[in-house]
Automatic annotation (TrEMBL):
Pfam families per UniProt: DLH
Signal peptide limits: 1-36
Domain Dienelactone hydrolase residue range list: 107-299
Transmembrane segments: none
Protein name (database record): Esterase
Keyword Hydrolase on entry: yes
Assigned keywords, A-Z: Hydrolase, Signal
Length: 321
């Protein structure tokens, strides 16, 4: 009983620490320098999302602003997502390995970097034979008007509207809708595994920033999801109690990340101490939110390293009958 209490306390501390940091800066505001000239948010019509499947988690309660999209940094973002969806990116059957992965974009739970941390990642994975599924999870509401949204972001950065540090219980409760969306994504993939030629025991999850938080929360709290492997890309690396039979973890972070670059690497040490597989890449430069952007820093190589790691663990090879 005492061990369970300790685990809950550590998980809540980890979630509280991450939520406090993420709440201050949304991923979309931390663009690579190469895209700084495109930093203005420009409203756009909702793009076509062929194959997107609505998840049966319902509409976010108490919402007033409808889903909206904008471009920034030469990429595409969604906000005010009230209904979760899952978009499959299936590999050529000749390449398919039977492995699959849920991709969770970041954006501070205020926006979703759907292109840089979602679709582009999924296409690259599908090209390597892994069925990838982009999770458009439900978000905290932001002002409907773009100018008002931009003002709210500026106020957040200035500290004028900086929220208080959330209590541990509030941090966990605040992610309940997103965890439900992730669980529903895993359940859907497993239900249709035969149709999509997927091994239900070889489904992992990768997340970016807030999406990395959701990936860890799904691993910890979403027990029925049970990812076979996880990727934590520039998410918080605060210490936590490692769950029993924790999945192999790949983590990548830039040393100059303004959110988590100076927060220690307790999560990595915890995984090692528990004798669970973990690979960690600390890049000298890259900032926060580098994703699939092409940059003149070695952080651009994270995806190749992740693919090599998947290969080492057998996820880029078809499972033996």
């Amino acid at each position: 009983m005492r061990r369970g209490t300790m685990r809950t306390t550590n998980q809540r501390h980890w979630m509280s620490t991450g939520m406090a940091a993420i709440a201050l800066i949304a991923t979309c505001a931390l663009a690579p320098r190469a895209h700084a000239q495109n930093d203005r948010m420009t409203p756009i019509a909702a793009p076509a999302q062929p194959g997107a499947i609505e998840l049966k988690t319902g509409a976010l309660p108490g919402v007033t602003a409808p889903e909206a999209w904008h471009s920034q940094y030469g990429s595409v973002f969604a906000r005010n997502v009230t209904v979760a969806t899952l978009t499959p990116f299936l590999p050529d059957p000749a390449k398919a390995t039977g492995a699959a992965i849920v991709v969770a974009p970041g954006g501070g739970f205020r926006t979703l970097s759907m292109q840089n941390e979602g679709w582009d990642v999924a296409r690259a994975l599908a090209d390597r034979g892994v069925a990838a599924f982009v999770l458009k999870y439900r978000l905290n509401q932001t002002p409907q008007d773009m100018a008002a949204f931009e003002r709210s972001m500026r106020e957040m950065f200035s500290g004028a509207a900086r929220p208080p540090r959330p209590a541990p219980d509030a941090a966990i409760t605040g992610l309940a809708p997103q965890i439900a969306d992730a669980r529903a994504a895993f359940a859907l993939i497993r239900r249709r595994a035969k149709e999509w030629r997927i091994d239900p025991e070889r489904i992992g999850m990768i997340g970016f920033s807030a999406g990395a938080m959701l990936t860890m929360a799904t691993t910890l709290a979403g027990e029925e999801a049970k990812p076979a492997f996880i990727g934590n890309i520039y998410g918080p690396l605060a210490s936590m109690t490692v769950p029993a039979a924790a999945p192999p973890m790949f983590a990548a972070l830039a040393a100059d990340d303004p959110l988590f670059g100076n927060s220690g690497f307790g999560l990595i040490e915890n995984w090692r101490a528990a004798k669970r597989p973990v690979e960690f890449h600390l890049y000298e430069q890259g900032g926060h939110g580098f994703g699939m952007y092409k940059k003149d820093t070695t952080s651009t190589g994270w995806f190749g390293a992740f693919a090599d790691w998947l290969r080492m663990h057998g996820f880029l090879q078809a499972a033996r009958p």
